[in-house]
Design brief:
single chain, 188 residues, mainly alpha, 7 helices, 0% strand
């Protein structure tokens, strides 16, 4: 079941995102702007993290990985939360609450088992090195005391962005922001 959830997280995220894009539009400019800031922050974190990954070749423990073990998933949570905020409609609180609840439920349903599975894989692959790393770096909520180390150790391999397909996510976030901004202004 864990493997199935892990494999389904991307298609479900894409389909859910498409449903949000096509079905809903921002109603409140302030919420849209706040959501956009959160989404851009989430994508910036994902870009930074993707530039530090060498899958199965080295344990990612530098840059954002120095302060949180799962910065890609934290960035995804910020993206999802930003989208929910952007679509929050004060005139329709039940719809807004349902959106937040659905996204939160799906996120926890897909990502909690994925994180456990991936960390078990890393423990098998990197043994005591991963165990030491995991004992000092939190899983999903960054330790702000480790920010200095994250910045100091950041040696991004920007070619990894292409290999890890994060530029596609960046393009989707920008396109979504433009589309929603256009719809908010009443043009769509």
């Amino acid at each position: 079941m864990t493997e199935l959830l892990r494999r389904l997280r991307v298609p479900v995220s894409v389909l859910g995102g498409a449903a949000l894009v096509l079905g809903l539009k921002p109603a409140a400019p302030c919420a849209f702007c706040g959501g956009l800031v959160a989404m851009l922050g989430g994508e910036a974190l994902r870009l930074w993290a993707a530039a530090h990954i060498r899958k199965d070749k080295a344990l990612a423990a530098t840059g954002p990985y120095a302060m949180v073990r799962n910065p890609l998933y934290l960035g995804s949570a910020l993206l999802a939360g930003g989208a929910c905020l952007a679509l929050t409609d004060p005139a329709r609180p039940l719809r807004s609450l349902a959106l937040w609840a659905a996204v939160s439920l799906l996120f926890s349903w897909f990502y909690a088992p994925t994180i456990r599975s991936e960390e078990a894989h890393l423990a098998r692959l990197f043994g005591p090195g991963f165990e030491r790393y995991a004992s000092r770096v939190p899983a999903l909520l960054p330790d702000p005391r480790l920010l200095g180390e994250a910045v100091r150790t950041s040696r991004a391999d920007w070619a990894s962005l292409r290999r890890n397909r994060e530029l596609t996510t960046l393009a989707a976030v920008v396109a979504l922001a433009v589309w929603w901004g256009h719809r908010l202004m009443g043009e769509g």
